[in-house]
Amino acid sequence: MVRRKAAALVLALLALPLLRLPAQEQVPQEPVTGEETRRLLLCFDLAAEANFSQEEELLLYESLLVQVGSASRKVAVIEAPDRKPAASDPDRSTLARSLGADSWLRVSLAGDWTSVAIAASSYDLLTKQTVFQFEMRKRLLRGAVDLERGFWNEVLEATAGYYSQAAAAKSLPGQVVFRAPPGTRITVPGGDILRTDADGQARLDVQLPLTLSIRVRRPGFFPLESKYYLSQELTTLELEQARGARFAFDVYLNNMIFPGFEFSWFPLPSTLFVRTGFTTYLAGLLFSGRGEDTSLFVSMTLNLLDLGIGAYLNDADRNLRAYAGAGVFLRLITSLAYFGLDPIAPWGLQTILGLEYSRRLKQRFYLEFDPLLYFTSHPDLLVASLSSNRDYIGYIFFEKFAAYFLNLRLGFRWQL
After folding, report:
1. Measuring CA to CA, how many Å separate 58 from each of 47, 48, 206, 279, 409?
2. Residues 29 and 150 in one domain
């Protein structure tokens, strides 16, 4: 008898992973789009006199969870944290509300593996009534095979029968009150946009129960996306957004050769920026040589100081953000013989077109396209300052100015 029980337990444990496999009959199905779904908290516990091993308890719980989850397309099962059982019905109701559920199912087991006593009950928080309650006793002669073939039938039929009908019943009217600073925009399903009034409130009429998805935006703050399960006639939601970045610090390589850095200040956090930076040509690395005698290192007695303004073109929580701006720059010569503005082309204008990418809000890689427009009274000397024909690539020369279209920056940005 002991060997037979041990063999049955081994087979059951080997079959346990199969209960979690994506088989057609056992995977909980996603709710049908447009249908209301009841959210059911599963409470599982063992009576004090129960005689089950930890492996047997886990097998019983897993099989119940999977089968209740697949019993109805209109029932979504929620697990209790760490499977800790609530002590009483009021505690189960409190736990269900805290987890966003509108009902609970309690299954309590007693006895042992050969004779299992099952006590099942369920409570609907919306109608405030116990919808079923019963007890029964069953045997597990073939372990996991019996668990899959009808062991939980009475529990499944009672759960699916009531909650499928309750989900299909006429929904109840309700109202959501959003609380946020005045002027906050709230996008609700259907694309409608609500705006909080001078008192910091916006109201939305809904049909209950409902899972409501919203997106909250306010200038200078990171957008907030969230889902709320609504089951009460009047629900108040406090919407708290994190303030956007006020400062940023960049390090970059200009044209993959010369280093630079940039410091930015955001008058409107994470949206409008004023920045200043410094690119030095005193030391650079050539990742592609121009000849056999070309050194890996390159140095010129030139530095570029810039000042610019710009704005981001999409929301601060997007992985890919675009921005644009413009500015001015000064060319500074720093050599032993001369220190000051470049006498050939001392200043110019700069266009800023950039893309940031990251899954993090405040640490981001970026690629920037920064065409330069040099103002000069000596375009011939500017041409002469370029060392070879290859240096002419990307330049267009005019009588009083020159444009350079191949100025790129690749860098990393920390937002603070």
Report:
1. 15, 17, 40, 63, 56
2. yes
